[in-house]
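Morning, I've got a small favour to ask if you have a moment. I owe you a coffee for this, so here goes:
>
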Amino acid sequence: MRPNIDISHTVNGRVKDYAEREGKSLEEAYQEIIEAGLEAVEHPDKS
């Protein structure tokens, strides 16, 4: 499922590719990526 926000087809395709490689649903992939991104912006010094 693509979130109801403006996401380019290129980015959406990358998420789809990631989901396929990892054996996840598109919803799971988006959730994982969004959570990782939030963690990165909330804690930028963490690597």
About this structure: DSSP finds two helices and no strands in the chain. Helices lie at 9-22, 26-42. The chain has a mean pLDDT of 90. The chain has one domain: 9-42.
